[in-house]
Amino acid sequence: MERRPKTESYCFASPKLERGKVRFAEDVKTLHKRYRENLLPYLLHARLAHVLTAPIIYSVIFPLLLLDLMITFYQHICFRVYGIPRVKRSDFIVIDRHHLAYLNAIEKVNCVYCGYGNGLVGYAREIIARTEQYWCPIKHARHSRSTHERAKQFVDYGDAENYRQRLKELRREFHRSKQ
Fold it and tell me: How far apart are CA 131 and CA 92, in angstroms?
């Protein structure tokens, strides 16, 4: 399907949130359905490489589900013991794009998969970042391309003089945030 310039009919048709659900006006939903590509043409025009690699992509769901189970179990047990506030899973895993009427069934499944996978990684990262803040809040000597927000508060690498005091302060922050 060729890309068309955005028209006013959907460019400015922002959805409304009603009791946590996204709602589009009926005329916008009708417009969205007109842009949906039916499954048969979608599959017939799919690149062979995409079709052949799809099972590999989707096989990652099994380690993702295991990670979800284990990281959730881990935080519910350990965070209670350490007094670390638990991470709210729904703040990270957002699955809503499958409601878009302009997506066909395959595109909707793809969007659910990616929303879950990326949300899960963010959820796991926050749990691990809180663990790091509690147990070893020391900045790395070498900079990473992707450091979590909590690391900004950590003690500088090699700062032995301030480590123990800062460790106590960062642990106390968890207890203050629970109140």
Answer: 17
Contact criterion met (CB below 8 Å) for 134 and 82: yes
Residue 12 lies inside a defined structural domain of this protein: no
- State how many domains the chain has: 2
58 shares its domain with 96: yes
Task: Output the pTM of the full model.
Answer: 0.82
Cα 115 from Cα 28, distance rounded (Å): 23
- Are residues 158 and 141 in contact, defined by beta-carbon separation less than 8 angstroms? yes
pLDDT at 8 over 60: no
In 3D, which of 143, 140, 142 has the Cα closest to residue 154?
A: 140
* Separation of first and last alpha carbons in the chain: 53
Print the SS3 string covering 37-82: CCHHHHHHCCCHHHHHHHHHHHHCHHHHHHHHHHHHHHHHHHHHHH
Q: What is the pLDDT of residues 137-146, one digit of tens each?
A: 999 999 888 8
Residue 141 belongs to domain spanning: 136-179
Tokens found for residue 170: 């960062």
Residue 84 lies in a domain: yes
Rounded (10°) angle between helices 105-135 and 61-74: 40
Q: Does the residue 179 lie in any domain?
A: yes
